[in-house]
Specification:
Blueprint lengths: L1 E3 L5 E9 L3 E4 H5 L4 H8 L4 E4 L6 H16 L8 E7 L8 H9 L5 E3 L6 H14 L4 E8 L10 H4 L5 E9 L5 E8 L7 E2 L20 E2 L2 H23 L8 E4 L4 H11 L6 E2 L2 H4 L6 H11 L8 E8 L3 E8 L1
Parallel strand pairs: 5-6, 5-7, 12-13, 12-14
Antiparallel strand pairs: 1-9, 2-8, 3-4, 7-8, 9-15, 10-11, 14-15
Helix pairs in contact: 3-4, 7-8
């Protein structure tokens, strides 16, 4: 469904991100020098980051949040709400947002959002609605830790992902800078990508050897969904925004792997020179990918105030999300 955000007086006041120092190469994952070329060819990743032994998902999210507040010259007490997309979070319960609120030193409501790779965009949609009802400053954060534990039966699946965190401060303003957005779910494909927990009942469509582990199957379904539906979502959001593809300054498109990114980029219709690509350095950081990329692009000057931005993401569920706004 496409939403018109034009009447909501909100803007992104500041961005921030955190990437752990430790770098994991392709050869480390499969234990073979020749695996580097194989992973580059099949996935496009060269390296990704991994947290240290003592870092929790809430810790890296808080580090990103502190950078946001430092940029905005605000304190945690100035925040009206914290929204967190954590995959996976610190616990099944309580919410990771509660832990983030405590570690950050804030005193506002703190809420978790699911939706895997689409979680941060879903959080932005929620935050915009909170701004519309009177809240002033909202942290929308995301973090991912996949390097700890071993949920992957297939080492190539492990090679897809990296650790990291990012987010933005959404702030009420006199002139709204968000034009449109959308969230889309095709639940019949819920079991194409799954990460079970100990009480999960597995879909009969998941092979027995993958039950209890991360599973990504039937890749042709993912490509079909992107070809048949993602372009229409993007077209709808641009139409509601009243913006053409030619007016988009920079596009951020989710990069779960090189082949899926290429398919999504084609569906977007945006020239490649205007699409940010960083998968080879960080892997798929799930819902944290878009805010990490945005923060880096702001800090290196690729994104400037007044630029018109398109964000597109998709993933497990099967879900997709779109945002169109002016930075």
């Amino acid at each position: 469904m496409i939403y018109n955000y034009a009447g909501i007086p909100a803007r992104i006041a500041a961005t921030g991100s955190y990437l752990p120092e430790r770098v994991i190469t392709n050869s480390e994952i499969l234990g073979l020098e020749e695996s580097d070329g194989q992973i580059r060819r099949l996935l496009g990743a060269v390296e990704r980051r991994a947290v240290s032994e003592g870092e929790a998902c809430s810790d890296i999210i808080v580090k990103a949040a502190r950078r946001i507040l430092e940029t905005a010259r605000l304190s945690p007490e100035d925040v009206d709400r914290i929204i967190v997309s954590a995959t996976p979070g610190d616990y099944h319960e309580p919410s990771t947002a509660s832990v983030v609120q405590y570690k950050l030193g804030a005193y506002c409501p703190a809420v978790d959002i699911g939706m895997s790779c689409v979680g941060w965009v879903a959080g932005m949609d929620y935050a915009l609605r909170c701004i519309a009802t009177g809240e002033r400053r909202i942290l929308v954060l995301a973090g991912t830790i996949v390097s700890r534990g071993n949920p992957f039966r297939n080492p190539m699946h492990r090679a897809i992902f990296g650790d990291g965190a990012g987010g933005v401060l959404l702030e009420a303003t006199d002139r709204g800078r968000f034009f449109s957005g959308g969230l889309w779910t095709k639940g019949e494909y819920y079991d194409v990508i799954t990460m079970p927990h100990e009480t999960s009942l597995h879909s009969p469509r998941i092979p027995p050897e993958y039950r209890g582990s991360f599973y990504m199957g039937r890749r042709e379904i993912m490509f079909d969904v992107l070809r048949n539906h993602l372009g229409a979502c993007i077209e709808g959001a641009l139409h509601v925004a009243g913006i053409s593809r030619e007016e988009i300054t920079v596009a951020f498109i989710h990069q779960p792997s090189k082949p899926l990114f290429e398919e999504a980029a084609r569906a977007s219709g945006i020239p490649r020179e205007r699409i940010i690509q960083d998968y080879e350095r960080y892997g798929n950081t799930i819902s944290a990918e878009l805010p990490i990329s945005l923060d880096e692009s702001v800090r290196n000057g690729r994104v400037k105030r007044g630029d018109k931005i398109l964000m597109v993401t998709f993933g497990a569920g099967f879900n997709a999300g779109v945002l169109v706004f002016e930075y």
